Amino acid sequence: MAENVELIKGASLWRDAWRRLLRNKLAVFGMIVIAIILVAITIGPALIYWLTGYAYDSIPTNNDLVRSLPPSWGHLMGTDDAGRDIFARVLQGGRISLMVGIISTTVSLIIGVSYGATAGYLGGAIDNVMMRIVDILYSIPYILIVIVLLSVFGGPSTPQWIKWLSETLGGAGNQGLSQIFLLFFALGLVSWLTMARVVRGQILSLKNQEFVMAARATGVGTLGIIFRHLVPNALGPVIIYATLTVPSVMLTEAFLSFLGLGVQAPFASWGSLASDGIKNLAIFPWQLIFPGVTMAITLFSLNFLGDGLRDALDPQTRKF
Amino acid sequence: MLSFIIRRLLIILPMALLVVTVTWGLIRLAPGSFYATDRQLPAAVEATIRQKYGLDQPWYKQYGMMMSNIIRGDFGDSLKYQGQTVNEIIRRHAPYSATIGILAYFLALAVGLGAGTIAALRQNSSFDYGSMSFAMLGLSLPSFVFGPILVLVFAFWLYWLPPARWGGLVNLILPVLTLSSVYMAYIARLTRAGLLETLRSDYIRTARAKGLDERTILFRHAIRGGLVPVVSYTGPALAGLLAGTVIVEKVFAIPGLGNIFIQSVLNRDEPLTLGIVAFLSILIMAFNLVVDVSYGFLDPRIRYE
Amino acid sequence: MIKPAIVFMLVVSVLNSCSTSGGGRYFGKTVAPSDNVLRYVSGSEPASLDPQMSTGQPEARLYMALYDGLVENDPKDQSPIPAIAKSWEISPKVDEFIFHLRDNAKWSDGTPITAKDFVYSFRRGFTPDTISPTADVGYFVKYAQAFNEHRVFVRKNGQFFLEKDFGGTASDTPAPFGPETEFHKLIHQPDKLTLDGDEKKRAKQIDADPKLKAAIDGAEFVPINAEDIGLEALDDLTLRITLKQTAPFFLGVLTHQFFRLVPEKAVKQWGKQWVRPEHILTCGAFRVKEYRPYDALILERDPNYWDAANVHLDRIEFYPVEENATILNLYKSGGIDAFLNHSVLASWIDDIRQYKDEYMNFPENATAYYSMNLSKPPFDNPKIRKAFQLAFDRVALSNFRKVTRPLYDITPNGTYPAYDKAREKVSEEMRVKSGVSPEVWEKREKFDPDQARKLMAEAGFPVEKSGNGYACPKFPTDQVAVSYNTNETNKAIAEFAQAQWKENLGITVPLKNMEFQTFLADRKALQYNGFAQSLWSGDYMDPYTFLSLHYGKINNGGAGFYDPAYDKMLDDANTELDQAARYEKLARAEFYLMEKLPSIPLTVNATNWMKKPYVKGMYPNPGTLIAWKFVYIERDPSKWDHDVDDIMKQPDQQYDKQMQELTSTQKAAK
Fold this sequence. Notes:
The structure holds three protein chains of three kinds. Chain A has helices at 2-9, 13-23, 25-52, 86-122, 124-139, 142-153, 160-170, 175-206, 210-217, 222-258, 270-279, 286-313. By secondary structure, chain A is mainly alpha-helical.
């Protein structure tokens, strides 16, 4: 009951949540791991290059080294078929995978939550129309959208800002990266749909509860009710679903790469590294294990963090 | 309620046509054509093809022709697979996908619901952490990784199961396991989250106060409300499962609709793409309708006017 | 929650993996099946069972079982051997062929096959409405191209306009060949002028030629009919084909799927639906038993086949599987007996090579190259093209890809030994002419980064030293890219090429992976920047199938190359009747082409497939076009295939006898 008292006292929801989050050991662990990984993928590639001379795309000039080598001191995670250092590739792949995961999930959170909540709360004809739009978007094959996007924007007519973004992030001449931005756009376009449905379902069951009626009676506006009262109460499933969106978007990216619509070689993503590695599982297992384990650890940590956040943000948190 | 269902059923067909229209527009925007190969066609031959398939007509005429056929339920012939109609292809391959999809779904539902419920009831117990970690593992192991691992273990180390292809029941085991793993994890996690939410709501508190035993509370009250997120997720997921999943079909060489769909898009096989899109959109909308109806049963607080 | 157990087992097995691989003489389960059935993975799902309606090699393989033509591919070297034609005669100018058909050839429903069937079948292929995508393979047949392209003859006062009167070359009067018929006289009249069938285009064509414009008044346009093509059934068992030009390789062209026989009866009755299993009529060694698209195509021995006594398999089951890892799994588990070419993953090859009784490593009749877009800078500059060629170490590339050999010309080396000799001769001649030493000459196309950097500097893009490597700051990297369609091999090659150019020229060429249709559209319209990945499998066994890649204004080369001088060299070569002399002329043309350098040749690929040792009579020919009727299952392990690297030379009593019988008819006729 203590938390309720605090709420009544009017303590800031966010500061309060932060305090509760820090009390959750697993969440803190998750946060630390993610921080480490973020630092590693930011400075790691440069560090490896400086220490060993390996980059994600450097194929050895010595023909005898252009093959899969097991992990050693030189190559901590071994090499791939072209003799490239897997450690460097995993770090570089992390940039792409995390960008894909985080950007798409953010898009899905922003659009999905507000869309679903609005539809659920307003109900009636508006809900019906809004959800039918979601149904339609669901049914349109997203690979077609990606193909069209890439052919319209990926060619010589790429908009300037996309070129600018890709060169800033990937270095000059990296046309390859511009495709990934189109990809973010396309993945964001589809990933919010299920989120909207999940949120709407929650709001439907919440909106007739007493606290909503009370808020309405005290004259809180529609937007206020949706975002200050309903959404915080539906955050549990939302956060869980968001943590589920991260891996699913990463894997969608791997699938699109597989069709030639995703990240451009020689760039890699964790998903594409894993799908390359799986073919050689029986002969060169390190090619799957290292990218796979890195990805799993990251997703686990994200998940712990998500759970912690959920508990911390829950206005009625209590232990059972 | 009945009028709600009827209204929603009536709207499904026009919406499917809308989806078909948008998809048609996208196909027309995409570069390439169904007859393009790495061999140059003489210009005259290309002109013959365009004339024969009506591609030299203005777009609104082509659209009108296509739509009038589709409204009559005729999607025409596949452009790539000669002499086969789209309807026939869908009818022939949907059952493969559906078999695997339904089996995988029920497996996922059984395991996911069970694990999720127990985890929610024993929040922060070792079972909770354990099962949720496995669920997370399920999510981070994509099917193109999990499938081959299963093949390696069961087909080549244990020699229990065939590695691929359609066949008897034994051929189904590995693809179904692979396919269900992700859904299992989703359902387990969503169940746990939903249940936790419900278990602390007022009506459960009331039920407890009335002195109902935990079993009744769980099965008669809590689980219904707690299932709302699972059900929201299930609608599109089940439709997707029935329509086939490309990776599992590729890894296990199963003649399902998912792979055919992707191929049709890549081949610019317009009638086939449109046919499958229409089929898929009707499935999705029908399942979403079922989901919306079941909200009312699951949670009495949800009402449709 | 089965996963934890599996993950655990995985970890354990990884620790043990060293001991599990490499053991055993054979790769996976190797037990000869008790029935006479071959199970074969044939690649992607066939687009059609109609041999004139698809371009793919996976389909071509199926047609080898289902349909016969006049001639068939030799199982070992793909040279033409008798099929429904038991023998043939060739006119002195090699522009006319007379085929004598067997009297016992039948369709799968038992009706006899006659020369009329061939006339129908070929005409149908050329009919514009059929829209056969491979009709151009047969354009050597007189008026076939004009018919296929809807063109028209021009007639005035009962007289046809002739080519030679309007700028064409006069054709010589032919030597009499075979019985003289009305049709023969007609077809041997001087070449008639043909014009575009489309009125607007025709008007343009006429306007462009003043002589024609003056003469055209009062003339009528006569559409070219199927009956105008140079095909004639002399009687039920004799067929005469008249070509528009001398074509010494035409017999080889006839083995192409386009020239396999399609049934008039079924096509007329069922239209496009004739290929459905319930309607289909075939004429090959096998007929359709059951067809489950995307799952299996099951063929059975056709008792009506003229050579049924020599067909050994009762059934062939074709499985369409595309994932290479899945194919290998099926093979290892014994679920299939053999699979299509290019299917062993590159990373597996070192391991698979140990299975010497199973792994097929032979050169293919195919070439991989990077086209360069000649229409866009910077690759419109020949010096830059040459620099990029020299800066790419293709020996290292083939070492990396494991199943390839470096290639420096457009025609694969090793596939045509006689042509290789001609090439050497021409090359030596050119060396003497240019006066360089053999050592320098030897290196002129090979890896030479210093020379490459020099050329770049000459072209205005100096390559500077920068740290340990090089940099070429002036080069416009945003105007170049390596475009390729999604595919494991293409990706690996592109990554390798990128690394090479970065290392040797200091230029990072971006890679552009594209979905196939988008890629094709870009490549055809010459929209791509810089390089486009190309792979060409020969249509028939003659260097011309590769050299004609850059022939004509619209060609399959992908570079936008067009050079009338080159076209003329090829045309001249093809009128040459003596093979050695012709090859020499072709080699000269190829030398000329490679000086212009519209593309960077990369590699000759290897067949790269496997078969179980108990499958006999199956040979790794250059196109992996398996002659299914020679294939049999050997149950006695002592007679299984050993060390298949020598398989082409190892005697096989059954095969040799069968081959001997088959070719005797043509030998006797000679």
